[in-house]
Amino acid sequence: MKTGLLLNIALALLMARLKQSVVAAAGVTFGIAMFIALISFMTGLNKMLDSLIINRTPHIRLYNAVAPSKTQPVDRAGEFAGFRNFIQSVKPKDEGKRLYNASRIIEAIKADGRVIDVAPKIGTTVFFNSGTIQLSGMIDGVDVHLEQKLFHLNDNIIQGTISDLGTVNNSIIIGKGLADKLIVKPGDVVQVTTPDGDIATLKIVGIVQFGIAEVDDVQSFTSIQTAQKLQGKPAGYITDIQVKLKDITLAPVVAKEYARLFDMDATDVQTANAQFETGTTVRNTIAYSVSVTLLVVAGFGIYNILNMLIYEKMDAIAILKATGFSGNDVKAIFIQLSMVLGVVGGIVGVLLGYGLSLIISHIPFETSALPTIKTYPVNFGVTYYLIGIGFALITTYLAGLFPARKAAKVDPVVIIRGK
Amino acid sequence: METPVLQAININKYFLDPVRFRVLKDISFSIGRGSFVSITGKSGCGKSTLLYILSTMDTDYEGELFLDNEALQEKDNAALALVRNQKIGFVFQFHYLIEEFNVLKNVMLPAMKLGKFSNEMIEQKAMQHLKTLGIYDQALKNASQLSGGQKQRVAIARALINDPLIIMGDEPTGNLDKKNSDIVFGIFKEICLENKQTTLVVTHDPDFAKRADRIIQMEDGKILL
């Protein structure tokens, strides 16, 4: 009941300066709303940008890299042990890109609890024949079902679907840039020449677009079986194993582990795409610092108004103290006053922030990178709303604390004798 | 002799600004229960200073002070606030009503702070006091809508709400005309007689001072007997 009384007094003092109070609360509202709108929008964009690359990239990729033999003949010569050897005469051996025992490895990785799923891939370079010109390109032979499950390839296929690769024999989905150059559309056939000189005819069932010209100009997809046939390889032929983990942060550790275990090369997503991680961090930092600045400014507004209020209400403070309210009671009154502004401003701010986010999420946004996205991406994460409210409370508490401490120290004798 | 309500022993007080100056010099006296005492003297003789020390609001003094047999000089600010709340009622020259509240709420505030009774009981009690003071009909008005004399009566009602042992007044009639002064004086007198509450009033109004049971005359920081 006592806290109720203090709150009651705080509210009465607030009412005395209703206009300024509203302005002060509006400062908080604005700060919180901008924080939420900004951070939702930023993280929404971040997620989209990440998904452009990170979602399309396996967390771990296992492959055979072409590398020189690690032990050169000179290393084996006893008399040069301890010398710095720089003669590298043995060239890389042609082992091919084939992964041996791939199906067993895939099964072993699938059994690992940290793994979502594993998808095999065959990567090969080809030439697309268009009249007399040959355009170089890449064909990825993929497992239709797993590719969609792990990498959402359908999001980027603007004509046709990935499942057509499984149902139509000798089919191919080619990049938008490539299709434009070859002047082909789904239903047409395209002739390709493999590195070994074989020529094959493939039927186009779809067009894919990543929004990155260099990729769209060369990339195409086909089913694993077609890729194997194309290269004249047996059914077990696979060049890459792509792994998706439940926790992406584990990728570097697990990659090393697999490289040792299966004796092949492994790259993790963090190493392969370091720049995206950096971009995300920078954008988040910008969003947070702008919002925090807004809230701090709002906090100063509250601080100002409370200071003014204290000077105006000196008499009231003096008489409260004279009639038995302690310094702590007076302090509590002014902190509560500030917190009321914070709570009211914060709640309105959250609603306004949600409204702004909704508006942003309805603004048309056409990007060639993500054909399925039509409006700006906004992340409606509850966390940001909680952070917003939390920050409103902390700011207003601090903004109230200093004036409140001043009010607590008011000496009633000085005020009363001064009259 | 019965135990005094208020006892001061060798109170000394210094002002440090602009130079060290001894305002109160070895003040000792005691006040018995239910008496009406006035402190009087010329401007600057230290009578208000003494009152603020007695009221526990000024803690910067030397000497010993007992209220209801409790030593006050050892208590911290929070404890003193409680003492003021429970045992002392104040009436100042200026009314110090809080404009944001109505008359009734102003009177109720100290009791709500004490929290000894429910709000309904406090309201009843406040109305009772307002009735005795003849401003019952103003209870729901805002403090700023009242006349000077009425405001002062509200301030008295506020001082009485917690049934304090002692009521202290600092020139309570200083801003009032003769008629209102008489009314206020009458009220104080009645409080003393009927409720057996002690009243201690600082005034430089000789008429007012003369009518008290006991007059403490001060000059240059000393008590003249």
From TrEMBL, chain B:
Q: Which domain of life is it from?
A: Bacteria
Instruction: Provide this UniProt record's keywords sorted from A to Z.
Output: ATP-binding, Nucleotide-binding, Translocase, Transport
The keyword Nucleotide-binding is assigned to this record: yes
A Pfam family found in this protein is: ABC_tran
SUPFAM superfamilies, per database record: P-loop containing nucleoside triphosphate hydrolases
**Gene Ontology MF, one:** ATP binding
Checking CDD domains in the record gives: ABC_MJ0796_LolCDE_FtsE
Segments forming domain ABC transporter:
6-225
What PROSITE patterns does its record include? ABC_TRANSPORTER_1 (PS00211), ABC_TRANSPORTER_2 (PS50893)
- For whether the record's keyword set contains Transcription, the answer is no
Q: Which family does it belong to?
A: Belongs to the ABC transporter superfamily.
Q: What is this protein called?
A: ABC transporter ATP-binding protein
Q: What is the lineage of its organism?
A: Bacteria, Pseudomonadati, Bacteroidota, Sphingobacteriia, Sphingobacteriales
